[in-house]
Amino acid sequence: MFGPEGPRLRELAVQALSSVERGYDLLAPKFDHTPFRTPDEVLESVARALAPLGPFADGLDLCCGTGAGVEALTGLCRRSVTGVDFSAGMLEVARRRVRPPAGGPGVAWVRGDARALPFVASFELVVSFGAFGHFLPRELPGLFAQVHSVLRPGGRFAFPVLAPPRPTRPGYWLLLGFDAVMRVRNALWRPPFVMYYRTFRLGDVLRELGHAGFEVELHPLPEFGRRDDGSPRARLVVARRGQPAAGSVNS
After folding, report:
1. Which tens digits make up the pLDDT trace of 205-224?
2. Domain locations along the chain
3. Where are the alpha helices (DSSP H) in 74-232?
4. Separation between Cα atoms, residue 33 and residue 212, nearest integer Å
5. Which residues pair with 217 in a beta bridge?
6. The Cα angle at residue 24 between residues 203 and 29, in degrees rounded to 5
7. Average pLDDT over residues 181-208
8. What is the CATH number of domain 39-241?
9. What's the gap between Cα 35 and its chain centre?
């Protein structure tokens, strides 16, 4: 599961007994050698799906980690790409490893909390990859309201979702077991480490996006095929902030 350059068991244990922020600061130098980093094929598939919806001037990678999503955005945005994350360690790695293409958009890194973003109507595109397990279901309304507020009218918030494994698959029990262990850990140890795989349910997400004022579309990601029932194995959620009505004042 982890290559020779990845973290040792002891390092993972120390991370798991830390806060989320401190844990990622510790993991940052080896994060790209773990399975937690979003695979390139997911990033490339999302970029292909978003390209026809552009052009985009300014983009934001929400919870950017070591910057893999920022690299994907540099091929979609003309003027600027910003990565925001609350882990100083992850941002430090991102600054070192991401090299914007010549003639491409400017890249900026901001340390901040996704639940209190330091921007106002600044972007045409916001993306996020693999970060939503760090937010409890009750936090989604506030999180989506924040994203809505940093998008310009007509801007889009996009993120991939994978179909959950069925109970007949080993992955189902692996994720169930992981979440159970994390719940026990958080009941017995402080500070909590919020990371759950089975709390970000598509139906709940679509409802909360609608409540936040988004118009939502689902785009299959064909590279990942379909399940036995014909449903896509992976989808791209694209939530669009509506244009203000004629005569209204945009806030």
Report:
1. 999 999 999 999 999 999 99
2. 39-241
3. 88-97, 140-150, 170-188, 202-211
4. 36
5. 238
6. 125
7. 91
8. 3.40.50.150
9. 15
